[in-house]
Amino acid sequence: MSDEETITLYEAIGGEETIRKLVARFYDLMDTLPEAKNCRAIHPPSLDRSRDKLYDYLTGYMGGPQLYVEKYGHPRLRARHFSAPIGVAERDEWLLCFRMAMDETIAHPKLREIIWKPVEQLAHHMQNREEGEPHA
């Protein structure tokens, strides 16, 4: 396969439209699922800014335009999230919402599998509190 025939993950999943649907569904789930209450609690009352930032980040992460980097610079995700107490519950609830949103918005199972592993690893990397450790 030549470079001209290679497509990005961003293109393979449906580009902007799919990323927007994924992000919208993710935050709708986080905002409404009782199983995501701990994760929701560490977010601001309005999720609008979070939605915009996740959309920008995922667009670049999946191989589309580097919107997040253009607006905010290097993601430094762990450092940017360090003020939020992310423990096992918050991490797992975030993953639950992301998995459900991905399953509902990305049709091809192989594409979901490709996306899942690094997202799961990133969520574990973002955890900054151990089980039972008090929130700051």
TrEMBL record:
Keywords: Heme, Iron, Metal-binding, Transport
CDD domains xrefs: TrHb2_PhHbO-like_O
Gene3D superfamilies the UniProt entry points to: Globins (1.10.490.10)
Matches recorded under Pfam families: Bac_globin
Name listed for the protein in its UniProt record: Hemoglobin
Family note: Belongs to the truncated hemoglobin family. Group II subfamily.
Organism of origin: Rhizobium aquaticum
Entries under InterPro entries matching the protein: GlbO/GLB3-like, Globin-like_sf, Globin/Proto, Hemoglobin_trunc
